[in-house]
Amino acid sequence: MSSVANSPPWCGQSVERVEDAALLTGRGRFIDDLPTRPGTLHAAILRSPHAHARLTAVRTDAARALPGVAAVLAGADIQKLSSSLVVGVKAKVECWPIATDRVRYVGEPVAVVVAASRYLAEDAIDLIEVDYEPLPAIVDPVAALDPAAPVLHEGLTSNLASERTFRYGEPEQAFADAAHRVAVTIRYPRNSCTPMETYGLVAEYDAGEDAYDVLANFMGPFSLHAVMARALKVPGNRFRLRTPPDSGGSFGVKQGVFPYVVLMGVAARVTGQPVKWIEDRLEHLAASVSATNRVTTLEAAVDADGRVRALAFDQLEDVGAHIRAPEPATLYRMHGNLTGAYDIRHVSVRNRVALTNKTPTGLNRGFGGPQVYYALERLMQRVAVQLKLDPIDVIRRNLIPSGAFPYRTATGALLDSGDYVKAFEIALEDGSFAALRERQAQARAQGRLYGIGLTAAVEPSVSNMGYITTVLTPDERRKAGPKNGAQATATVSLDPLGGVTVNVASVPQGQGHRTVLAQIVADDLGLKPSDIRVVTDFDSGRDAWSIASGNYSSRFAAAVGGAAKLASGRIKAKLARMAAAQLNVPADDIEFAAGKVRARGNPDNALLFSRLAAASHWSPGLVPEENQALRETAFWSPPELTPPTEHDEINSSLCHGFIFDFCGVEIDRVTGEPRIDKYVTMHDCGTILHPGMVAGQVTGGFAHAVGAALYEEYAYGEDGSFLTGTFADYLVPTAMEIPAPVILHYETPSPFTPLGAKGVGEGNCMSTPVCLANAVADALGLDAIDLPLTPAKLAAHIHGAESTPPQQERAAPPPGKGRALHGAGQAYVDAAPDAVWRMLLDPNTLASIIPGAHGVEKVTDTHFRADVTLGVGPVTGRYKADIRLSDLDAPRAVTLTGVVTGALGDARGTGRITLAPDSSGTQVAYDYDAAIGGKVASIGGRLLDGAARVVIRQFFAALVRHTGGKPAKRGFFARLFGSGA
Amino acid sequence: MARLSAAERHMVRFTLNGRAVEAQAEPRMLLTDFLRHELGVTGTHVGCEHGVCGACTVEIDGVPARACLTLAVQADGATIRTVEGLAPEPGRLSILQEAFRRHHALQCGFCTAGILMSLDNYLKRQPDPSEDALREFLGGHICRCTGYVPIVAAAMDAARRLREPSSDV
Amino acid sequence: MKPARFDYIRAGDLAEAHHALAEFGNDARLIAGGQTLMPMLSMRLVRPQVVVDIMHLPALRGIETTGNAIRIGAGVRQAELLAWPKLAEQLPLLKAALPWVGHAQTRSRGTVCGSAAHADPSAEIPLCLLALDATIELSSRRGRRRVAAAEFFTGMMTTARAENELIEAVHIPARQTGTGYAFNEFGRRHGDFAIVACAAIVTAANVRLAVGGVADRPALRDFGALDGKALDDALDVFAWTLDARDDLHATARYRRELVRQMGRETIEEARRWHA
Ligand code: FES
Ligand code: FES
C-alpha cells in the first residue's frame, strides 16, 4: 500500500504518550483531585484489631453525638439496606462488606462514620466502643483444614470452601512407568502490588429514582457491576458506575474497591448526601486485597533423560476470610496452562480452597501465575539436580516443539502461536548465557556464592470469563448455564467537524491506553494520533460495556485494541463507500492516508478525511443510509474462548505469550543479601504496538516481581495479627533495589487477535520470582526455598552453627512467631513462701503492681479490672486491663492471665509464678508468654516489642519490689527480658 | 507567644509557586490536605501519609520535603514550590518534564509529581550525578509502575541537557 | 489517617518553648523537623495537647566549634550537618553515618537533635552520639544540664530528658588525631531502619565498637588492644550480651552474627583509616 510506503504505521512506534503532559504538570484528574458536590460528606472506617472475634456490642452513641458527624453505621445498619455479595462457589456462605456478627480478619470494617471531614470522621471513630470476644484464629491454610480447627463461617462444616479433582490423559500410568519421580512442596506467600494511589470513591443515592451513582477508581472486571447492583438491591440500570479520567495504578488490586462501593452506597443512602471515601495507606495494606498464598505439592513423572511425562498438582489455595468475588478465580486462571511452556500430556490436579483469618484475596498482577510457576519451575530445577542434568537441557527437552502451534494443552488451553525453542535459543545467545556460566565459574572459584536461575513460562492474557466455572462440576455448570467469552468493546465516533473520538471500557490505570488506541485508529484511518481523541473514563450509564470490560488479565492490547480496530474498520468501510461514490472508483480502491481519502494509485483524486467524516452529520440526505458513518461500536469476543468441556478442559485465556528468563544472583556471605548480578528476560508477546510501553510493562512487572521475591510479604502472626501495616514494614523496593533487566523480544503475532498483539504486563510477575529463587537455590545448594528470599533466611544457610552463649549468659529462647513474647526470670525475696503468697493474692498488691493503674476494681477474689495508662517513649494510651488468677497451688504457684485492650491495640499474656523456699526466704520465679495485636501490632511492630517488654518488666519488677525482694544479681533485667523473643 | 487553638481554623499564608496564597487550617491539618483541598492545588499526591513513598514531595524553602510530614501551620511564611510550578509556561514543559515524557518515565503518573520535585531540586545542586548517586537519591521515592529504569534514564538525560549552556529550565 | 486535635505554638524564643513545656509537660510535643513525630501524630499513636514548634528559634540553628567539641543546635537539620564544610575533618564518623539516615528528602527536614530525642534503637545518630561520647545539652525553665549519651539513651525510644526539658544541642567531640573511624549498616532497603548498624573507633590503645538495631538502645563496648582471634571471641561475647530480638525482618541469631562479622569488618575498616 502506498500509504504504508509513505509513512510507517504509528503502531510499532514509541510515540510520546498523550496522557503525559497533564500528569507531568500536576493536572491529572485522579479521584481525590476531582471536585465534589457541595455537602459531600467524608467517611472513615473503624476496623477490627482482631483476626477472629465475636462482635458482642458496637456502641456508637458518643461518636454520633460528635458535632459534624452525620451517621455512624455498623454491620446491622448496612445489612438492612443491602444484601450479601454473591459468592462464586457452591457453599452456604455470605460475604458482607462489613463485619456483622464476627470479625474474621484484622482490618475488617466494623463501623463506618460519615462526617463533615475526614479529620472529624476519624475523631468519631475514636469514640466508638466495641466489645469483642476473641476466638482462636486460623492463619495457616493447612491448619485451617484440620477437623479440630475453628470454623470461620456458620454455613460451612469446615474451612474447606471448595474441592475439585481433575484428570487429563493417563497420569497414573505415566507415573507408574516413570523412571523417576521428582516432587516439590512450596508455600507461596502473600503479597500485593500496592498501587501508589489507594482506593477512592464518591457515592450518591437518588431516593426519588432509587438509583445509585458511584464514581470509583474501580478497574473491573465489570462482571462485578452485577454483584454490586445486586448487593445494593437495584437493577443494573439503577446502579451507575463511573471512573475518573486518571487512576494511580492498579495491577489488579483496584478490583477490590467493589465491596466499599456497596458500603458507601448505603452510607450515601442513609445520609441523603454524597459520601466520599479515600482509603489511607494503612487501610490499604491491612485490608484491600492480597494475592493468594498457596501451598502446592507438585510431582513429576520423569524419563531418564529429563523428559517430563506427567504432573500431579495438589494446590491448597488460601483466599482469606471470605470467598470474595471473583475468587477462587486465582486458582483457576492458570488451569489451562498448568503445564507451562512444556509438552506434558498427563496431568492430575487436586484443587482445594481454604478460608483463614486473613484479608480476603483478589486480583493482583500475575494472578495465579506466580503461584503455579513457582512450583513448576522449582520442579524443573529439581529434575535437573536430581537427575544430574544441565537445567538448560531439561528445559529444552520439554519445551513445546516448534511447529506445534496452535497447541492444545492437556488441560485445555489453545496456545495460539509461538516458537518457544527458537525464542529460547535466541535468548541464550543474545543474552550471553555462556558468559554468565563463565562468570559463575569465576565467582565460585573465588569462594563466592553465585547461582544461576532459569524459568520458562507461558503468559496467558485475555481471560475467558468461563474459566472460573471450572470450579463447578460439569453437572453444576449444566445447571448454571454455560459461561464463556471475553466481550471487548470499543466505540469510534465522528463529530460534525470530522474529528474522531474513541471510547472504550478498558479503564486504564496508567498503561497509556489512550495513546495506543490513537495509534491504532490513526493507522486505520490514515490520520495522525493527535487527530484522534480517546476517552477512557468509564460510565456504565453511557458507554458500551460488558462483563469482561475492565483492565485485567492483560487484555487491553489484544482485546480492546482489537475491538477498536474493528469499530474503526466499520467506520472506514462506510466512509470508503461514500468516497467511492464521490471519487468514482470502486470502494475496494479507496485508501486512507495522510488525512485524505483517495483513489489508490491516483492520490490527486482525493477528499479530505474530515470533510467526508462530517458528511453524515450535515447532509445525511445525500448519503445512503447504509453508508452513513456517525458512530460504530464493536463488540468482540473471540470464538476460541469456549466454556469448559465435559472433561473440564478449559481454554482459560485467548493469548499466550512466551517468556524465558535467566539470571545470575550473588549472595553476600556476611549479610545473606542476594544481589541480582544479571537478569535477562525474553518475551514473545505477539505484535508489539508500542515498544516503549512494552518495555515499561516489562520493567514495571519485573520490579513487582523482585519485590515479591526479595522484599514483600503480608506477614501475619500466629494469632492472626497483621504485622506489615506500614510502608516501613511492607517493603516496596526502590530504585536502589531494582536493577535494569536485559529485555529481548521474539515476535510471533497471535492469529486470534485483530492486531496480533498479546498481553505482556504480567509475565515477569510469573517468571521472575521463581527465576530468582532458582538462582538462590543454585547458589546455596538448597533443595527447597520459599519466598521472600530475605537476607536473614538465606544467611541461616550460610552462617553455620552459632557459638554457644558464654557461661554467664542465658541461652536465647526459641524464636517467637509474630508478636509473641516469651520471657522468664527469678528473684530472691526475703520472706517465707506463705507470706509472699498472701501478698500475691491481695488485691491491693495487684493494684500497686499493675503498671500505670488508675484504680483496680475487684470483680471476684481472682478477677480484677483496671484502667491503665501504658506507653513507651512518646506513645502512650489508656487501656482497660482484665486480670485473672488461676491454677492456684498455695503457696507454690499461681497463673496470672492479663488482657489489656485499648485504641492502640491489645495484649494478652499469661505468666506462671512459682515460689520455692530458699534458706530463710523465697525464690520467686516466673515465666510468661504474651502476644500483642491490633493497631500497634500492624504499624509499630518495632515499637511494640519494646513497649511490651517495658510493661512486663515494670509489672514483674513491681511484683518483686512489693514482695520485698531484690532481683537476683547479675543482670536481672537482661536475664528477665532481654532475650525475650 | 502565638498559640493556635486546636478546634479553630487559622489563617495560613505562604508563597506558592511565586504567588502569595492564604487559606484557613486547623493546627492539625497536614500540608498535603491544605495544598490539595484548601488551595485546590491537586498535583501533589498522597501515597502513604507516613513519609515513606515520596509522592507528596514538594520544595519548602528551597529543599525537597515531604508535605505529608508537615503541618500547614508550620508552613506559614514559607516559600513552597509544587509540580504546578515546574513548567516554564502553560503548554511548555521543563527539560526534566520533557525527559520524563520522552523516556516513558511515568505510567499512572501518581508518583511523578514528588519525583519531579525531588529531581528538580537535586539536579540544581548536583548537575552531574553518577547513576549510583542518582539511584540513591531516588531511593526516597516509590514508583509502582515503571520499575525505575526509565526514571533513571530520564533523569540522566535531563541532567545532561541541563548542563548544556543554553538550557534555562 | 489524620492527627487528633492539638494546639500549635510557634515558639518565638527559648523561654516560650520552656514555658510551654513547663505548663504542659508530657502533653506537649516539640516539633522540629517533624520526620518522626508527624507519622506518629497521623497514626494517632501520639496525642499531645499542644505541639510546640521550635524551628523558629535562631538560637538553635547553629553548628559551632567550642573547644574540641562541635555543638549542634536543635534546629540544625541533618542535611545541613551533612553539608557542613568541616564535617569530614571534624566529625568523620557522622560523615560516614549521615547518608544512612533516612533519605535525602527526609534529611532535608529532619534534625540531628530530633533523632537523638526520638531515641530509636536502630537510628544512626544516637549510635554515633554514644560511640563518640557526645553529651546532650538539656534545658528547661529551671536551668540547663548536660548528660552523657551513655546515660541519655535509657531504652526503646526513652531518654533521660525530663518532661519539662528540651534538647538544646548536642556536643560531639571533634576528631582526635591518631584515631580511625568507620560506620557500616545493614538494612533491608537503603534508608530503612538498621537491622544492625556498627560504628567503630580505633586508636592505638583501644578498639571501640558501638552497635545499633540490636538491643533496645545503642550499645557500646571497648575492647582495649585486642586483636585477632581474641577480638573475635570478645565480639562474640558482646553479641551475646546485646539481647538481640527476632522481628519481622531478621532473627536474633542473624543480628548477633552481623555484630560479629560486620562489627569486625567495621573495626578493620577503622583500623585501615587509622593507619
Ligand atoms: S505521602 Fe508523603 S511520603 Fe508518602
Ligand atoms: S508512574 Fe505509577 S507509581 Fe510511578
The total number of structural domains of chain B is 2
Number of strands of chain B: 6
How many DSSP H or I helices of chain B? 5
Annotated CATH homologous superfamily of the largest domain in chain B: Beta-grasp domain
Helicity level of chain C: 25-40%
CATH architecture of the largest domain in chain B: Roll
Radius of gyration from the alpha-carbon trace of chain C, in angstroms = 19 Å
Let me know the average pLDDT of chain B. 96
List of distinct ligands in this structure: FE2/S2 (inorganic) cluster
Number of strands of chain C: 14
Spatial gap, N to C terminus of chain B? 42 Å
Structural class of chain B: alpha+beta
Which CATH class of the largest domain in chain B is shown?
Alpha Beta
Shape of chain B: elongated
Low-confidence stretches of chain B: none
Portion of residues within helices of chain B: 25-40%
CATH architecture of the largest domain in chain C: 2-Layer Sandwich
Order of helices and strands of chain B: EEEHEEEHHHH
Task: Estimate the global geometry of chain C from the Cα principal axes.
Answer: globular
What are the key terms here?
heterotrimer; A: 981 residues; alpha+beta; Aldehyde Oxidoreductase, domain 3; Aldehyde Oxidoreductase, domain 4; seven-stranded mixed β-sheet; 27 helices; 36 strands; disordered C terminus; B: 169 residues; Ubiquitin-like (UB roll); DNA polymerase, domain 1; 2 domains; five-stranded mixed β-sheet; binds FE2/S2 (inorganic) cluster
What's this entry about, in short?
By secondary structure, chain A is α+β, with helices and mostly antiparallel strands.
Question: Could you explain the architecture of this structure?
Answer:
The complex is a heterotrimer of chains A (about 1000), B (about 170) and C (about 280). Chain A folds into four domains: about 35-135 and about 195-285, Aldehyde oxidase/xanthine dehydrogenase, a/b hammerhead (Aldehyde Oxidoreductase, domain 3), CATH 3.90.1170; about 160-190 and about 290-470 and about 640-710 and about 740-785, Aldehyde Oxidoreductase, domain 4 (2-Layer Sandwich); about 485-545 and about 555-635, Aldehyde Oxidoreductase, domain 4; about 820-975, START domain (Alpha-D-Glucose-1,6-Bisphosphate, Chain A, domain 4, 2-Layer Sandwich), CATH 3.30.530.20. Chain A is about 30% helix and about 30% strand. The radius of gyration of chain A is 32 Å and the shape is globular. Chain B is α+β, with helices and mostly antiparallel strands. Chain B starts with a strand and ends in a 6-residue tail after the last helix. Helices cover about 35% and strands about 25% of the residues of chain C. Chain C contains eleven helices and 14 strands. Chain C has helices spanning about 15-25, 35-40, 80, 85-90, 90-95, 105, 110-120, 125-130, 150, 230-240, 250-275, and strands spanning about 5-10, 30, 50-55, 65, 70-75, 135-140, 145-150, 155, 160, 165-175, 180-185, 195-200, 205-210, 220. In chain C, the strands form four sheets. Chain C has a five-stranded antiparallel beta sheet. Chain C has a four-stranded antiparallel beta sheet with strand order 11-12-13-14. In chain C, strands 1-3-2 form a three-stranded parallel beta sheet, with helices on one face. In chain C, helix 10 (about 230-240) packs across helix 11 (about 250-275). Chains in contact: A-B, A-C, B-C. At the A-B interface, helix 2 and helix 20 of A face helix 2, helix 3, helix 4 and helix 5 of B. Strand 1 of chain B pairs antiparallel with strand 1 of chain C, so a sheet runs across the interface. One FE2/S2 (inorganic) cluster sits at the interface of chains B and A.
